[in-house]
Amino acid sequence: MSPPDPFTGLSAFLAVAEAGGFTGAAARLGVSPAAVSQAVKALEARLGTLLFVRTTRRVGLTEAGAALLARVGPATAEIASAIEAAGAMGSVPTGLLRLTVPRMAVPLVVEPVVAALRRSHPRIAVEIAVDDATVDVTARGYDAGIRIGEYVERDMVAVRLTRDIAWSVVGSPAYLDARGRPERPEDLTRHEAIRYRFPASGAIYRWEFERDGRALTVDPPGSLIVNDGDLLFSFARAGLGLSYVADIAVAAELASGELEQVLQPFLPRTPGLFLYFPRRAQDQPKLRAFIDVARAVLRKRSP
């Protein structure tokens, strides 16, 4: 009897781990939830250990499942990349391009670039996952991600997409007329801040400033806490308080006068948005096509 195929059941396992459940995994694989469940159970039986903890509300990885994902996820991504690269040599760019992006990048980069990519390379399918948390693209099976430069891991290839970011404290003219315009970071203690909670860590962001060449952080008071950048903008526009945001994300609101900047002499600049990906992925035709289109489109949109 020939030994069992070691890859049997792995696609179902990876899909459930990525989707967080059997229904989502089934939709992604194009099969029934029962088929996915059967494949995972067969894999667990073959390994002699449970890979998932199943409850009525969620499906989570066991310790064994997490250990398997940590090793198989990157290996599977490498295999898929190698197969796709081999098949695409000498042909037009094709295949599924999976990207993880923060919400801020959607109007600035994703919408214009993907629209142009689909027109010029219709054989490239695109899947976009919007997530403000830091994502390990290799472990999660993404081809590439977009993040602010300072959050890109150093072992990744990084391609600049936007200019540097000048951070801004913004509020509506109505709010600032009523509450006054802060002149120093310490003045924020007398204002209402719209605060941001990091999705992954759960920590609340402390506003960063610079004075006399030194870094300064302030944790301003505020009764509104969000984990979504769009809400920072919309609540500030509504006059509910001050928000700490990237200037490129609110350029239209600043130009129209809906929002006004304060404390500009104290605010830092940081690297802008970058596309990042593992070095092994840089020769994929679909990724090269995205980079070429992004450069062409964003060069025209840059001020």
Give a brief rundown of this model.
The protein has 303 residues and is of the alpha+beta class.
Count of distinct structural domains: 3
Strand content: 15-25%
The CATH C-level name of the largest domain is Alpha Beta
- Class per helix and strand makeup: alpha+beta
Can you describe this structure?
- This protein is of the alpha+beta class and 303 residues long.
- The protein has three domains: 10-73, Arc Repressor Mutant, subunit A (Orthogonal Bundle); 92-164 and 272-301, D-Maltodextrin-Binding Protein, domain 2 (3-Layer(aba) Sandwich); 165-270, D-Maltodextrin-Binding Protein, domain 2.
- It has helices at 10-19, 22-29, 33-47, 63-88, 105-120, 137-140, 173-179, 229-237, 251-256, 285-301, and strands at residues 52-54, 59-61, 95-101, 124-130, 144-148, 157-160, 165-171, 194-196, 207-211, 214-218, 224-226, 243-246, 260-262, 269-270, 273-277.
- A five-stranded mixed β-sheet has the order 4-3-5-15-6, covered by helices on one side. Strands 7, 12, 13 and 14 form a four-stranded antiparallel β-sheet that branches. Strands 1-2 form a two-stranded antiparallel ribbon.
- The longest helix is centred in the N-terminal third of the chain and has 26 residues, at 63-88.
- The mean pLDDT is 89.
